[in-house]
Design goal:
- The chain is 76% helix and 0% strand.
- The chain is mainly alpha-helical.
- It has one domain: MetI-like fold, CATH 1.10.3720.10.
- Helix 4 runs antiparallel to helix 9 and helix 10 runs antiparallel to helix 11.
- The longest helix is centred in the last third of the chain and has 35 residues.
- It is found in: Cell membrane.
- Keywords: Cell membrane, Membrane, Transmembrane, Transmembrane helix, Transport.
- It holds the Pfam family BPD_transp_1.
Length: 269
C-alpha cells in the first residue's frame, strides 16, 4: 500500500463563493457576446440615447401635463377593457376544469389522452397573445371579439398548465381510496378530486383576471378592442397628454383589480 504521506493530494472542491463567481463571469461574458454585432450579436446603440435625449424629454414633458378634459372619452373603452377581461376569465374558468383534469396524471390515467391534451395546451401557450389578436382581428374584424378570444386562449394555457402541474406534484391518497372503493375515474374526479383542487383553480382564475386587465390594454394596440385601441390612436396623433391620462387610468384600474382579487382570494381560497 502507498504510504499516507505519498498519496496524491486531491484538489479541494471549489467553494460556493467560487462557483457563484464563475457563474456570474459566465453570464456576463455570454451577455457581452450577444451584444457584439461583429460575431452575430444584437446591435445595442446606447449612444442613441444621448443623441435623442431631447426628443424623449419633449415627449416626457407632454406626458407630465395630462389632459383631464380627455377623461370622459376614456370611460367607454375602459369599461370595454374590463368586460373583455371578465368574459375571457369566466369562459376560460369553465373550460379549464375538464382540460386540467384530463391533463393531470392522477385524474387521467390514460396516457394517450393526457399526452394529446398536454400537447394542445403547449401549442396554445407557445403562441404570443399579440399574434393571436393580430390573426383574429384579420379574421373577424376590429373590436372586442378578437380580444375576448385571445384572452380566453391566453387564460386556458396558464390555468391548465399551472393547476395540472400542481395536481401532479401533490399527494393523492384520496384518489387511490376512491379506486379501491370501486369508483370510476369520472366519479372520483367529480366527488373527490375536484373539491380538493378547487382552491387551486380559484387562485389561478383570480390571477388570470388580474393579467387580463393588463393584457387587454395591450391587445387594443392591434385593434382587438378596449382602452389599448384608444391608446394607439392618440399615440399615432402624438397626443401624449392624452396618452398619459390613459396610462394613469390603466394603472389605477390594475391596482383596484389587484386589490379586489386579493380580497376575494382571502375569502375564497
Amino acid at each position: 500500500m502507498t504510504p499516507a504521506h505519498m498519496r496524491p493530494t486531491l484538489p479541494e472542491k471549489p467553494t460556493q463563493r467560487v462557483r457563484t463567481a464563475l457563474i456570474v463571469v459566465a453570464v456576463v461574458g455570454f451577455t457581452a457576446l450577444t451584444m457584439t454585432p461583429r460575431i452575430g450579436g444584437i446591435d445595442v446603440d446606447i449612444a442613441s440615447i444621448a443623441r435623442n435625449w431631447r426628443n424623449g424629454a419633449d415627449k416626457l414633458l407632454q406626458m407630465l401635463q395630462p389632459n383631464l378634459a380627455f377623461v370622459p372619452r376614456t370611460v367607454g373603452p375602459m369599461v370595454e377593457t374590463l368586460q373583455m377581461a371578465i368574459v375571457g376569465a369566466v369562459l376560460s374558468a369553465v373550460i379549464s376544469i375538464p382540460l386540467t383534469l384530463w391533463a393531470a396524471t392522477p385524474t387521467n390515467p390514460n396516457s394517450v389522452g393526457r399526452a394529446i391534451v398536454r400537447t394542445v395546451i403547449n401549442v396554445v401557450r407557445s403562441v404570443p397573445d399579440l399574434v393571436y389578436a393580430s390573426i383574429l382581428v384579420a379574421m373577424v374584424g376590429v373590436g372586442a371579439l378578437p380580444g375576448v378570444i385571445t384572452l380566453f386562449l391566453f387564460n386556458i394555457g396558464i390555468v391548465v398548465k399551472l393547476v395540472s402541474e400542481a395536481i401532479d406534484s401533490e399527494n393523492h391518497g384520496y384518489i387511490e381510496a376512491g379506486r379501491a372503493a370501486g369508483g370510476t375515474q369520472f366519479q372520483i374526479n367529480r366527488a373527490m378530486a375536484l373539491p380538493e383542487v378547487m382552491p387551486l383553480f380559484m387562485n389561478q382564475w383570480l390571477y388570470t383576471l388580474e393579467l387580463n386587465v393588463r393584457v387587454s390594454a395591450i391587445l387594443g394596440l392591434v385593434g382587438a378592442g378596449g382602452i389599448g385601441r384608444l391608446l394607439e390612436e392618440r399615440r399615432s396623433f402624438f397626443a401624449y397628454e392624452d396618452v398619459s391620462i390613459i396610462i394613469l387610468e390603466i394603472l389605477v384600474v390594475v391596482v383596484l383589480v389587484e386589490m379586489l382579487s386579493n380580497w376575494l382570494r382571502k375569502r375564497l381560497v
